Structures are given as structure tokens and as C-alpha cells.
Amino acid sequence: MTDDSPLILLASEIGWQCPWYQIRQDHLRLPDGSERIYNVVDKCDAVWILPVTAAGDVVLIRSYRPTVRAWCYELPAGGIEEGQTPLQAAQVELKEEVGGVATDWRFLMKVSTSNGLTNEYGHIFLATGVTLGEPHHEPLEFLTIHPTPPDQALAMARAGEIDDALSVMALLLAADRLS
């Protein structure tokens, strides 16, 4: 809690964990003196990459997401491993998910991914001059690669056909650079 927080942190414990995240239970005292438990999905920061090929196509992926039980269009993304910078993580994820290598990288934004639920921040990058190669997917990654004209990718984002919030944000944030 920050110095100006209306809450007092009494204790914090891990209620559950797996290799990708944990549930932290914060025991809090509220301004009225009552106490409550607030659950937080505690996870490492992640990266989202907006890859643009030398030909100008945006590289989307279509990934099966067990969380929503659906195939979803999105941008390559992944967690930042301990010891990695956000840029290093972005370069690794681009290579793993689409076999991509970029000639230029630009940091666009750092944003909270869901500040009512998790402490994760997303680092959004624009990668240009991308060449595609052989991807190296993790066992639970089921995805296909879709180079897409920028106008079509932006239309998909605006129409809700891309429903991953940070993928939509990255596309709209960089829209002027894609035209």
C-alpha cells in the first residue's frame, strides 16, 4: 500500500499457486476499522508485440484460449521471465510464436492489464521489418499465423473480431503508423 492508501495491509499470504501465477490474499483494514480479504492474481509482467512485415502486413495469430473456450485473433504476447528486460521478452515471444525477427523495435506503452484483478503490467511494442520463420510453440499453445493487411487488422479491432484488449489497444495506438 502507498503512504496515501486508505487501506492498511495487515498481512498477505499465498492462497494458491501454479507455474504461471498465484493468488495472493491481502488482509486489509478499511477506514471504518472493518477488515476484509482482497484476492489478487499475482503474476509477472508481460509483453504484447505488434509485428509488421517488410511488406507492411500486420502479423496476427489465431489462438485457442481455454479460458474463454474459443479461438481468438490476437497479437503475439507472453510473460517476462526473471532476468529479462521487456524488450528481450518481446524478441523471444516474437520468435517463439511466429518465428519472427524484426529489424526495428519501438516501445509504445506500459499499461495495467486489469488493475481490479491482477498486478500484471503489459509492455506494448511495435516491431517492424519482421521476417517470419519457424515458430516454436509451447505444448499448450495452439495457434495459426495470419499476416493481415493493416486496414483489415484495424477493422477487425474496431469491429470486435479481435477481442484481446491489449491487442486491440496496440493496434489502435499504432494506427497512424500502419497506414
Radius of gyration: 19 Å
The overall pLDDT, averaged over residues, is: 95
**Multimerization status:** single chain
> Helicity range of the residues?
10-25%
H-E order:
EEEEEEEHEEEHHH
Strand content: 35-45%
Can you identify the CATH class of the largest domain? Alpha Beta
Domain tally: 2
Quote the distance from N terminus to C terminus. 43 Å
Give me the count of strands: 10
CATH architecture classification of the largest domain: Alpha-Beta Complex
What is the SS-derived class? Answer: alpha+beta
What are the low-pLDDT stretches, counting only 5+ consecutive residues below 50? none
Overall spatial form: elongated
Q: What's the CATH H-level homologous superfamily of the largest domain?
A: Nucleoside Triphosphate Pyrophosphohydrolase
Number of helices: 4
For the biggest sheet, the summary is: 4 strands, mixed
Please describe what this structure looks like:
The chain is an alpha+beta fold. The protein folds into two domains: 8-42; 46-178, Nucleoside Triphosphate Pyrophosphohydrolase (Alpha-Beta Complex). Helix content is 20%, strand content 42%. The protein has four helices and ten strands; from the N terminus they run βββββββαβββααα. The protein has helices at residues 86-98, 150-159, 165-173, 175-178; strands spanning 8-17, 22-29, 35-42, 46-53, 58-65, 70-74, 77-79, 104-112, 121-130, 143-148. It has a four-stranded mixed beta sheet. Helix 2 crosses helix 3. It is elongated, with a radius of gyration of 19 Å. The termini are far apart.
